[in-house]
């Protein structure tokens, strides 16, 4: 097994200039001929400009750093680029010790100063920004930062960044770099106020003329003030006598959250399995399964006799605990660990679902859910989940 290179053998070579076909080959010719091993390389194209850094190991080279630098400077003059050499100990600067890398994804409507605002938050907390990548998607801008939290309390810092970004009107999701690189294969969603742009039970209540009573119970349950099962049974009892035709009418006019259809289509296209886990009703999840192509759906079953609701629910209640169990069951069924699962929801009923997933995102959510999630997205940014998952087309880099 080869011994690791010593710091005095390692040099950082940086290149900046106009891009053209074959330029990488031309730049690497001299190191290859001099048996200089390139042990790390990062190359980007930014608005037609090549930006490249590489770490060269001279431990077993046939040339000194000064000799390679002279050769590369001659090549650089021919190519019209700038080349600089720096020993790696100087390149690293004063910040040493074990790194604690996190991916911080910011989503917002584009405006001046977003990157500065986040950089200020990081600097004030002693967090080093190692990399930033900007992706524009219409009016939505996504900035993916790789930040080194160093010796700081990561959990406390994650909560602090989420709170401060929210004050600035920015959506943010914070993941450890290791977790962000995990292969994710399953994503689970809540239905009401997540995939569907309203609470279906509130729509049903309007038909029954009990909308005010039901909406009040719904809000108290979502804020965690009422036990979910108790709240659900109370609301369904208020719907007793509602004709099945009312459900059909709501289903015909079901309104999806903006971006949800495109999001599900893209996720399935890249191989994700998708699930809908709802504290709502199978009458609607079945329709969404057919319309959007969900692989799995789970919800409560309304008892219907002689074409009307009886005010009762059949079978097991899908509450918060059941949602958490279903996430674990689906992971087992798919043969993956919890790190391979993404969960998206909006209310207190989604807490265990969010916590049991490798990545939990609170969408247009209540405070109780934001606290246990890895980050939150606002109502207009659901499609931004693609950026969080690294699935959006990449735009330019900021170095």
TrEMBL record:
Q: Known PROSITE patterns for this protein?
A: ACT
A Pfam match: ACT
- Which UniProt keywords are present, listed alphabetically? Amino-acid biosynthesis, Hydrolase, Magnesium, Metal-binding, Serine biosynthesis
Quote the pathway field: Amino-acid biosynthesis; L-serine biosynthesis; L-serine from 3-phospho-D-glycerate: step 3/3
| Gene3D superfamilies tied to this protein | 3.30.70.260, HAD superfamily/HAD-like
Question: Which protein family is it in?
Answer: Belongs to the HAD-like hydrolase superfamily. SerB family.
Q: What is this protein called?
A: phosphoserine phosphatase
Upper lineage is: Archaea, Methanobacteriati, Methanobacteriota, Stenosarchaea group, Methanomicrobia
């Amino acid at each position: 097994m080869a011994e690791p290179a010593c710091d005095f053998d390692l040099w950082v070579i940086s290149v900046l200039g106009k891009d053209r076909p074959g330029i990488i080959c031309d730049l690497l010719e001299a190191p290859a001929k001099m048996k200089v091993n390139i042990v790390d390389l990062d190359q980007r194209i930014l608005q037609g400009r090549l930006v490249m850094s590489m770490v060269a190991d001279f431990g077993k080279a046939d040339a000194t750093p000064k000799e390679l630098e002279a050769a590369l400077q001659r090549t650089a003059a021919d190519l019209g680029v700038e080349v600089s050499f720096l020993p790696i100990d100087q390149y690293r600067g004063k910040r040493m010790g074990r790194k604690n890398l996190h991916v911080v994804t910011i989503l917002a409507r584009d405006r001046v100063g977003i990157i500065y605002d986040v950089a200020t938050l990081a600097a004030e907390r002693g967090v080093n920004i190692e990399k930033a990548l900007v992706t524009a998607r219409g009016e939505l801008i996504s900035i993916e930062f790789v930040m080194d939290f160093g010796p700081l309390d990561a959990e406390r810092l994650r909560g602090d960044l989420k709170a401060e970004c929210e004050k600035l009107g920015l959506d943010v999701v914070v993941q450890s770099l290791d977790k962000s690189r995990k292969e994710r294969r399953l994503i689970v969603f809540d239905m009401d106020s997540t995939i569907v742009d309203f609470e279906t039970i509130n729509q049903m209540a309007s038909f029954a003329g009990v909308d005010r009573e039901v909406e009040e119970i719904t809000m108290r349950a979502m804020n965690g003030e009422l036990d979910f099962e108790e709240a659900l049974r109370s609301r369904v009892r208020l719907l007793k006598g509602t004709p099945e035709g009312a459900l059909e009418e709501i289903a015909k006019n079901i309104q999806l959250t903006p971006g949800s259809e495109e999001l599900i289509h893209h996720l399935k296209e890249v191989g994700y399995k998708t699930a809908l886990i709802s504290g709502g009703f199978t009458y609607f999840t079945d329709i969404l399964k057919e319309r959007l192509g969900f692989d799995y759906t789970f919800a409560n079953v309304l008892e219907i006799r002689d074409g009307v609701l009886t005010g009762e629910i059949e079978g097991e209640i899908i509450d918060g605990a059941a949602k958490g169990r279903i996430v674990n069951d689906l992971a087992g069924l798919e043969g993956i660990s919890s790190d391979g699962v993404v969960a998206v929801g909006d209310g207190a009923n989604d807490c265990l679902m969010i916590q049991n997933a490798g990545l939990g995102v609170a969408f247009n959510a209540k405070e109780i859910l934001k606290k246990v999630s890895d980050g939150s997205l606002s109502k207009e940014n659901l499609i931004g989940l693609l950026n969080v998952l690294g699935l959006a087309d990449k735009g330019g880099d900021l170095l």
